[in-house]
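Listing S7. Sequence submitted for prediction.
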Amino acid sequence: MKIFISHSSKNSNYGNALVDLLIGVGVKSDQIIFTSNDAYGIPIGQNIFTWLKNKINEKPYVIYLLSSDYYDSVACLNEMGAAWVVENEHTMIFTPDFELDSYEFRNGAIDPREIGFRINNHNKLVEFIESFKREFDISKKAVLINQKILEFLKRIEEYSSKKKVHSKVEIKATQSEEKIKEQKIIKNKEIIPTEKTSSRLLTDLRNDKLKDEEIILIHYILDTSRYQLGTGWQENNEIENIKAWEDINEINSTLSSNYDRALRRFKMRGLTNVSDHTSHGNPKEVSITQKVQLELLDIPDDLLEKISNVINNNKCLW
């Protein structure tokens, strides 16, 4: 049996600590699947979606590392749904700040009445490691196990403390930015219309100027958090990823068949920058501009509805 740690990439620090704990108490490294660390992740040359789908179908023991970031990620929710369908054995572990009464958790695929525990709960961690002795070669040295758990808890406390400080800094920075904006508005005695500050992508989406493949590409980027896209000699790899994604989501081949055209139109609108080159200086990867990335994280409801309508119109009919 293998252990699959389903997590948000934003919580990779917690996940890496969990991997080190498991290995420290006796789990072998080749028994762990953790995609945020290359040593335990997806092999080079493998299709991301197909590889994950196959691994989940092999029925590994799933550890759901749950957080608000997890429920904000469509890719994570797809993982959860796929594992739930094949009824994998699993454990829920919550990050220190996760709200257990959140709507997303209460209405998710996993039954919220199941017993989980917070990642910094010493006694529950001991029980958790103990339960693995049925399937894995866990050390019989209680002193060693306790030592590894204490080291793990120290790391978790450091991560949690840094996150709290970072959150306070972000709040202060946001408040300062809002204050500056208010002062500028008062000084100029006018409010700049949002439309003028929007990227051309959202403007054209609102005005129905985008092709279906462009709108589906937006959905693909949002669904997979792939803000870097393959081009040039890596274009075929990206298309294979898209085909697997279309298959999982039962979407027709509009995007995979017209990916090159959609990417060219994004470039013409100034929505991408070349982010990587071959040894001969040819583009092999483009990145969605930072401005567009920020806008995609907070798309207005009316535009989300437009995207949803196009996706529904391009669903497979079989």
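Caption to Listing S7: primary sequence and predicted structure tokens for the chain studied. Strands lie at 3-6, 32-33, 61-66, 90-94, 117-118, 228-230, 272-277, 283-288. The first strand starts at residue 3 and ends at 6.
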